[in-house]
Request: fold
Amino acid sequence: MNFFLKPIILSSLFTITAISQVSYAQEDDDKNSDVTTSAKSFWEAEIPGGNYMVSLRSISSLSIHSYIVNQTFMVHEVNIVTPGNGLARFYAYDVAGEGGASNVVKNVIDKGKEVLSRGTGRTGVDANTTVEKEYPLTTHAGTIEYKLVDKEDLDQLYKSIQRALRENRGRKFTIR
Reply:
């Protein structure tokens, strides 16, 4: 009996290990990634709103900040400034007071999100990642804009650029 028990236990352990590795790999596919690239002099972003690539040597400044627009939206923004008129702006926003909203305000916020979602379904455009502009008020010549879903993604993007600049090594940041 012991003769059969050892191979069964070993094959069971092997199967469990293999399954856990496969499920671990699938979990990683759903997460953002930030990896060193072979293109040593470039930082690259692959995000739902598009792709962006910049030479590390051409970045003159990098910033992250937040501000309130019309007492309604809290905007979180990362700016990459390069020579010439190319400014890359990555942003995410929250409705001001969304975190500690009262029931009435929360209902209004939820209703607004629902309307946006329905519009997304009809047009095929993802309102969470599509840049919104109101011409001519928000037109900025030379500004490349990307809208992210949440501030956590924005923070990860900023840390990726910061790491690339500090290490002087190319990186590719991907939001899934």
Remarks:
- Residues 1-30 form one domain.
- Confidence is low (pLDDT under 50) at residues 5-27.
